[in-house]
């Protein structure tokens, strides 16, 4: 009993010595809770990986298209079709390649009417509807596949891919044919599908992208 009494006295003294005004409360507890949740191991379901494949494919190909439009606009202004022709390959740009490496992805553009024979591919008409159609599948445990149509939306592309003699100057087309003797990539109009982006992604890259995409981001609070 004497020991128990002494313990209660000591404990009481410790507790009584910590007044509310002396307790340091943690700040930003909500942010800390979100950060802790981000570091938790989460189970990613197969359907989640398919969603992430679409997100990653959209991000990569959308970025590549924007880079292509910017580069072509600059080159066409500097030296016309002759200057722009070598740059109509956004999948080879260093910035696009860097993003592809992060996603562990291999992007390529294919079409039934190629300029470069290496881009020749058979494409199902049902998968080439303009606007929002995406094809996403998982060919194997470690590999995912993404495809979306390439639609001619920028009028500057008609200078190389439009109607010869109308949109494509004869001199420019002679230059194109000199470099690509088997060219088939002309005669297009605005809004037409020219081919498709195809991206092959590894499972690890898709899973990492899903984690990044679903990570909670705290909204900044107003200071005043």
UniProtKB/TrEMBL annotation:
Tell me which residues make up the Tll0287-like domain: 107-200
Highest taxon in the source lineage: Bacteria
The record's annotation in InterPro entries points to: Tll0287-like_dom (IPR021796)
- What this protein is called in its record is DUF3365 domain-containing protein
Q: Which organism is it from?
A: Hymenobacter guriensis
């Amino acid at each position: 009993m004497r020991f128990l009494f002494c313990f209660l006295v000591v404990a009481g003294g410790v507790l009584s010595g910590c007044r509310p005004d002396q307790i340091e409360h943690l700040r930003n507890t909500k942010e800390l809770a979100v950060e802790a949740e981000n570091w938790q191991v989460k189970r990613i379901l197969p359907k989640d990986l398919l969603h992430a494949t679409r997100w990653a494919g959209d991000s990569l190909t959308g970025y590549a298209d924007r880079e292509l439009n910017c580069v072509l606009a600059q080159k066409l202004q500097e030296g016309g079709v002759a200057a722009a022709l070598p740059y109509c390959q956004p999948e080879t740009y260093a910035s696009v390649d860097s993003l592809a490496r992060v996603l562990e992805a291999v992007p390529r553009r294919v079409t039934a009417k190629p300029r470069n024979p290496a881009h020749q591919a058979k494409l199902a008409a049902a998968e080439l509807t303009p606007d929002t159609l995406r094809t996403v599948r998982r060919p194997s445990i470690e590999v995912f596949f993404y495809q979306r149509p390439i639609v001619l939306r920028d009028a500057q592309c008609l200078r190389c891919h439009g109607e010869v003699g109308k949109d494509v100057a004869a001199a420019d087309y002679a230059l194109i044919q000199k470099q690509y003797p088997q060219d088939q990539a002309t005669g297009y109009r605005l809004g037409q599908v020219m081919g498709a982006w195809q991206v092959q992604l590894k499972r690890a890259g898709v899973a990492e992208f899903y984690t990044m995409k679903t990570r909670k981001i705290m909204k900044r609070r107003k200071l005043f």
